Amino acid sequence: MPPPLPFPGCLDWAGQQVAHPNWRTTHSLLFLAQLAFSGMHVMSNPALHYLPPLVFAAIRLSLALPFLFLTSKQEGEVTMGWRDNAQLLVLGITGVAIPQSIIFVANELGGAGLVGILTPLSTVFTAALAGLLGLERIGLLKMAGVGMAAVGAALVAVADGGNVSGRSPWAAIAMIANTFSYALYTNLMYLFLIRKPHPFTAYFKAVTFGLLCILPAAVAQARFRPVDWRLVPYWVWYVEIYVGVVVTSGAHAMIAWVVQHVAPVLPGVYGALTPALTVGMAALFLGERFQLGDIGCVALILTGMLLVLLARFRDSKANVASQLPEKAEAKHVDGDEAMETLLGVWKGVVAGEKSEFQLLRDLENLDGGTLTVNSFRIERDLVF
């Protein structure tokens, strides 16, 4: 007979949280994810003195790939045709090859703090592109948010170009390209997942294609900037493991899991912590110094991002409220119980307490015969 587990109650609690997490668990995980992202920017900066950016990115993705493969297997066997793989190649270029390599170029040129300052542009660009693609409504509040963030980013680039900040202007340009490319990837992945709802498999294949695109560039960069592997300190490899396994595999998977249990706008709100955490850690551990103008630019970008998130949250609530009565039908088997259950689940989404994913799962988990939902689909919010 095997010995009893030391903390059986803890394991039971963890199992319950995986299935039905409470608000403390979801908020704690979102904070830890943002802390992991900020730590990646800060820890990568000194490591880039020993490994060129593209080489660093290639090693990071190579370490993450086995873990992403194991995660994708949780979805079972997924068949992808040649058209699917062609689209995943585009996703690998826009969401992996370009942003995962350029972000380290920007970090080397401008420092970890600059990366943290401009990272929220991804949310703003995502909303702007979604509006242009007809995936989201473009309103005055959202336009004001996009405009404020764009002004903040432009001021950062102008300050760097005028040597006011002491940073290379190419760092800001690289980060703007990074966030725009990732925003394009976010919208394209959303469209892909509507047709192929297997996010972990899609992400694994996109990373695979992205790595295949990065490898030739990394080899070429290693020829122009030769690496003496014998002089690379051991702690650099710990940083690679951290950014490859903890961040690329763990933090992204964590956010993907949390989004299934909370309103999708919530991870975007937590993204506002990245600039403060990154700038604080960069000043504390790397000795980076920031100008008063940097604080003003951060304020503009974050205000613009929060306005965009507010507009998207309002649109999401209105979208759910308009679609559900038209696309769901309740068949009364036990009196009014079915309709009461449906309305209760619906109110949870409209109030922002549950995500659309949770709504669909709750509807599927109702007792058989109690409720039938025909032609039912709610547009998912684009904030991942």
UniProtKB/TrEMBL annotation:
It comes from the Eukaryota. Residues 28-157, 170-309 form the EamA domain. Belongs to the drug/metabolite transporter (DMT) superfamily. Plant drug/metabolite exporter (P-DME) (TC 2.A.7.4) family. The chain crosses the membrane at residues 50-68, 88-106, 112-133, 140-158, 170-193, 200-222, 234-258, 265-286, 292-311. The keyword Ribonucleoprotein does not apply. Its main location: membrane. Keywords: Membrane, Transmembrane, Transmembrane helix. InterPro entries: AA-Vitamin_Transporters (IPR050638), EamA_dom (IPR000620), EmrE-like (IPR037185). One of its GO terms (cellular component) is membrane. It is a multi-pass membrane protein. It comes from Ostreobium quekettii. It is found in: Membrane. This is EamA domain-containing protein.
